[in-house]
Each structure stands twice: as C-alpha cells, then as structure tokens.
Amino acid sequence: DIQMTQSPSSLSASVGDRVTIACRASQAISRFLNWYQQKPGKAPKVLIYGATTLQSGVPSRFSGSGSGTDFTLTINSLQPEDFATYYCQQSFSTPRTFGQGTKVEIK
Amino acid sequence: QVQLVQSGAEVKKPGASVNVSCKASGFTFTNHYITWVRQAPGQGLEWMGWISPYNGNTYYLQNLQGRITMTTDTSTSTAYMELRSLRSDDTALYFCARYTKVTDLFDIWGQGTMVIVSS
Q: Which stretches of chain B sit within 8 Å of chain A by CB?
C-alpha cells in the first residue's frame, strides 16, 4: 500500500498569511494526488485533483503543485473560513490512501 | 441536485452488525463507483473500499475483508455498507462518496453516519 505522509500535523496562522502544507508519497504516484478540506463533523470537500487542478467553485487562493513523491498545497491570503483540516489522498492505486491530515488553526 | 443522503446514527453492541445506506440522486447511479470512508473520533480518513453499481464489482480494504459487504440497489439508486462482528474500534463517522473516474476523485460526499459500538 502507498503511505501518504503530511507535514506539519498542525499549524497556527493568521488571516492573510500564506500557508503551505506538504504531502509525501512512499512511492512515485505521478500526479495522482488530490487535496480535501474538512471541517469538524462535516464531509470532506474537494479542493484540488490531479495535483494541480482546482475543483470548480474553489477559490483561486488555493493551489497545488508537485509530482512523483512530493506535493504541496498552498493557501494564499488565509481567510477565516479556511481554518480546517486538510488531507491529501493518492489516486494512483488501490487501496486509496489518505495522509494523516494537517490542522490549520487560528493564531 | 446531485447528492448522497445517508441513513441515521446507529448504536450497536460489540459483535453485532450495522448496515448503513446511501441514497443517490441527481446523477446516473450506474455511471459512478460508490466508495466508503470512515473516520474514528479525532482521527483521519480511512478508505474502506468501493463498489460498482453497474456490475457489482467490489474492492475491500484488506483488514476489513471477511467483515464487510458493500451492495447496491439500482432500482432505488441506493448503496449499502454492512459491517459485521463490530468492535469498539469500529466506532466512527462513516461516509459514502461518489467516485468519478474522469477526475479520479471522490467528488460528492454523503453527510456521514455515526456508528457507536458500545456495551
């Protein structure tokens, strides 16, 4: 199974900050990498698929980059509604696997 | 409106079984796999497997094999996930989600069903 490791596990940031979350795969997955946002008690919401493609309706302050084993989610100018937990997920092979999550908290 | 609506919360005793339903609307049910993902309290997301409503093909996470069965009823566009021999560590919020092959993405999610296993 492909292991997905995110860093950091949590971070504190202020409104307006630029935030970067890393995700590393245990083997090369090309660009088969998706990012989700989850708020407490709610279902995950798709942000980015194929490592870099913004899902329809997602604000352009979110962006993704990377290929192979190393990927990054960037949030430019953090907004109050962005405080949540973010997960990466590989779609290269089954079983599909998620990172352990990165919680973005208010500083 | 494209949506998945799940059944309500369940409380079960250890050793019992639970059956969670997921009713689809707003899209062609047989064109998309339905996947199940669970989240234990305070923990991350665990992919459990998926089913093709078109032909019934399934894939289950290895450590759940023997205890899990996913089925669909195409006449009602409903997917079901049965988990047997429940243990306390099966306590979790269970989500169904639609898998779209073109984007390789779980793009539509149900609201979640809380399953509590407690004696």
A: 35, 37, 44-47, 49, 59, 61-62, 93, 95, 97, 103-107, 109-112
Whether A89 and chain B come into contact, CB under 8 Å, resolves to: yes
Residue with tokens 């073109």: B102
Query: What is the rounded CA–CA span in Å between residue A40 and residue A79?
Result: 17
Q: Which helix (H) or strand (E) holds A66?
A: strand A62-67
Each residue of A74-89: b (16+ CB within 10 Å) or e?
A: ebeebeeebebbbbbb
Contacting A residues, span 36-75, partner chain B, CB-CB under 8 Å: 36, 38, 41-46, 49-50, 53, 55
On chain B, the residues whose CB falls within 8 A of the CB of A42 are 112
Please report, as a single letter, which amino acid is at residue A56: S
Structure tokens at B54: 């078109």
Neighbours of B16 (CB within 10 A): 13
Which residues on B lie below 8 Å from A31 (Cβ)? none
Establish whether the linkage from the previous residue to A95 is cis, with ω within 30° of 0. Answer: yes
First to last CA, chain B: 40
Q: For residue A78, give both structure tokens.
A: 């953090």
Per-residue pLDDT of chain B (119 residues; tens, 9 = 90+): 999 999 999 999 999 999 999 999 999 999 999 999 999 999 999 999 999 999 999 999 999 999 999 999 999 999 999 999 999 999 999 999 999 999 999 999 999 999 999 99
B44 closest CB neighbour out of A32, A55, A101:
A101
